[in-house]
From TrEMBL:
Protein name: ATP-binding cassette domain-containing protein
Start and end residues of each ABC transporter domain: 5-249
PANTHER family: ABC TRANSPORTER ATP-BINDING PROTEIN, ABC TRANSPORTER ATP-BINDING PROTEIN NATA
Family: Belongs to the ABC transporter superfamily.
Molecular function GO labels: ATP binding
ATP-binding keyword on record: yes
PROSITE patterns, sorted: ABC_TRANSPORTER_2
Organism from which the protein derives: Paracholeplasma vituli
Organism classification: Bacteria, Bacillati, Mycoplasmatota, Mollicutes, Acholeplasmatales
Keywords in alphabetical order: ATP-binding, Nucleotide-binding, Transport
Keyword Nucleotidyltransferase: no
Top-level taxon of the source organism: Bacteria
InterPro entries for the chain: AAA+_ATPase, ABC_transporter-like_ATP-bd, ABC_transporter_ATP-binding, P-loop_NTPase
Amino acid sequence: MKVLFSVKDVTKTFTLSKKQRKILKTNDSKKVAVKSLSFDAYEGEIYGLLGPNGAGKTTTLRIASSLIKPDSGDVFIDGISVVNDPSNVRRKIGFLTSELKLEDFFTPNYLFDYFSRLHNIEEETIQARKKMLFDQFGIQPFCEVKVSDLSTGMKQKVSLAISIAHDPSIIIFDEPTNGLDIITAKTVTDFLIHLKQTGKTIILSTHIFSLVEKLCDRVGIIIEGEMVYENTVAEIMKTTDLETLFFQLYESKGGVL
Ligand SMILES: Nc1ncnc2c1ncn2[C@@H]1O[C@H](COP(=O)(O)OP(=O)(O)OP(=O)(O)O)[C@@H](O)[C@H]1O
């Protein structure tokens, strides 16, 4: 099996502002968000990154997407170093987060074209791909409506379409169903299955156990920035369920319920 996504010994520390220290209820001036984290995802699989709030999932995926730099370590996307060659990495990946903010003033049509052109995609391909994705997600009737007037679900579907406009082979989804109504959440999860069927490699961060059980081939459990467990979902389900396993690990790491 070919490794397409490889996190190698990544560490990331943030300096905390006064406000952040208050929110995190700490006097420490630094927060180690990710500690010597390593894991691989194979071509064509859905790899789930599961962890509680603040575990370091988003930080890891932002590093993998070249949005922030690690203190040490690296992420290799199809062998390309995100530290040394971030622009080539961006060509290979799609990144979707539930926090993605689309500019309110623009329309789905405009934004899709704009981001596609940033990837230097040919105009004919942009329009064909837009039609396919907008039809798939029911965006077409809203394609000339300003983002500010779209529902949360429609915004997320537009974000999803834009994140894969360049047909990336590796797609990173950070909590993609967060804050979505059940219908839109299902559209998104069904689409993840469709992407897997078309051979894409998907990294999915979530804290929803059922989502991992339903979608993922393998799962890595991350607590306090460290990988504490990794296995195939099928193997886990032979003896227990993910929720039971997770809380056992959480308590054994000193987590308080
Ligand atoms: N820019 C930042 N400045 C300071 N601390 C940060 C910053 N980004 C993240 N952190 C801290 O790093 C830790 C890991 O955060 P991260 O967002 O990666 O976790 P997460 O697993 O994605 O959690 P969630 O599900 O809540 O998004 C948290 O303690 C968080 O407060």
